[in-house]
Each structure stands twice: as C-alpha cells, then as structure tokens.
C-alpha cells in the first residue's frame, strides 16, 4: 500500500471513529438524573452553531469558531466524556495528545489542520477561542434549561454555575434571554 492509499485509509478511519460521538452520551447529565442525555455529537453540533452565531455578534471569524467548536470534543471517542467531578480524580491525556493518536495515519494536511485547531482551542486566547469556549458553555446552559423543563430540577445548578463562566457580552446576553423563554417560544409567532 502506497502512502496515498495509507493516508486515505487513515483519514477514513478517523472519520469512521467520529461516528462514535453519535452514540456516546454526555455523562455529566447522569449526575443530575437525566436518564437519556444528549450525545456528544448532538452537543458538538449545537456548540458549533452557537459558536458561529456568537462569532457574528462578537466580530470574530464565524467559520473559524465553528471549526474550533466542531473538533473540541472529538477526543472523547477514546477517553469518553469525563464529567467535571471525575476530572478531580483522573489524570486524562491532553486532548492534543489524543488527537495526535487519532490522526496518526491520516493525510498530512488533515493531521496538521486538525491538530492546530485542537491546540488552539486548548491553549489559545484569541477572540475566536474565547467565543468557542463560550459557545461550549452556552450550549450547556441551554441544554440544562431544556432538562429543567423536562423535569430534572438538579440541572438548575448547571445553569447557575456555567453562566458565571461566560466571558463575552453576547454569550451572557443570550444566556439571559434563553432563561426567560421556553424551548418552544421560537415557534409562537408562527402558530395560528
């Protein structure tokens, strides 16, 4: 097998591995009693969409933020979703190291591009990185609000503690607005 075939196979293997995120549940929600929490892929999708929206509001590059958000939890195919309380007791591999293993046989351009995104998300402090981190937190706030509506009162603490970590004015404003509405308010103007 030549390098091109090997890189194609390694890259396709990485893409197949990402399919695990569609089945893997976000484990932190079990702590608050959610029996069937969202998957990591569901979280990542909405985080990327929120990231693009926040970037537009904050004057950051929406495509860059969406990319940072898309790849921010891809390492969880290998290490799982370790809830915040579990991190106190576990020493997990750095996300950059997990990503390097995931991409070991991928096309060199894919390796360089995704490793750079993950490293920037983990260690950078650009406006795009700050917005991407806020998107991750805002998605958790919105998800917690939805779980509150579904009858999981312990999700309230997640709303309150996560909101305090938002850094951008736009993320704080969206969190405030989300808290004043139900998950179905968006459709009210279209109802007969």
From TrEMBL:
Indicate whether Transmembrane helix appears among the record's keywords: no
| Enzyme Commission no | 3.1.3.89
Q: Which UniProt keywords apply?
A: Hydrolase, Metal-binding
Q: Which domain of life is it from?
A: Bacteria
Query: Is Ligase one of the keywords?
Result: no
Q: Which SUPFAM superfamilies match?
A: HD-domain/PDEase-like (SSF109604)
Q: What is this protein called?
A: 5'-deoxynucleotidase
One family name in Pfam for this protein: HD_3
All copies of the HD/PDEase domain together span: 36-150
Return the Polar residues bias intervals: 180-192
- Which PANTHER family does UniProt cross-reference here? 5'-DEOXYNUCLEOTIDASE HDDC2
Q: Which InterPro entries match?
A: HD/PDEase_dom (IPR003607), HD_domain (IPR006674), YfbR/HDDC2 (IPR039356)
Reaction(s) catalyzed by this protein? a 2'-deoxyribonucleoside 5'-phosphate + H2O = a 2'-deoxyribonucleoside + phosphate
Query: How does this protein assemble?
Result: Homodimer.
Q: What class of enzyme is it?
A: hydrolase
**Residue span of region Disordered:** 170-192
**Cofactor dependency:** Mn(2+); Co(2+)
């Amino acid at each position: 097998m030549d390098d091109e075939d090997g890189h194609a196979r390694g890259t396709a293997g990485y893409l197949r591995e990402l399919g695990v995120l569609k089945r893997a549940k976000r484990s932190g929600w079990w702590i608050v009693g959610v029996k069937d929490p969202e998957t990591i892929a569901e979280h990542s999708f909405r985080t990327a969409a929120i990231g693009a929206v926040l970037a537009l509001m904050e004057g950051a590059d929406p495509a860059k933020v969406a990319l940072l958000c898309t790849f921010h939890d891809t390492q969880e195919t290998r290490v799982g979703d370790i809830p915040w309380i579990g991190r106190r007791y576990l020493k997990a591999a750095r996300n950059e190291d997990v990503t390097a293993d995931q991409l070991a046989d991928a096309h060199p351009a894919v390796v360089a591009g995704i490793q750079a995104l993950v490293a920037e998300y983990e260690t950078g402090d650009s406006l795009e990185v700050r917005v991407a981190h806020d998107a991750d937190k805002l998605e958790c706030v919105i998800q917690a609000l939805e779980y509150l509506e579904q009858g999981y009162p312990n999700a309230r603490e997640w709303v309150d503690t996560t909101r305090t970590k938002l850094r951008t004015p736009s993320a704080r404003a969206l969190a405030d607005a989300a808290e004043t509405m139900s998950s179905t308010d968006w459709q009210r103007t279209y109802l007969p």
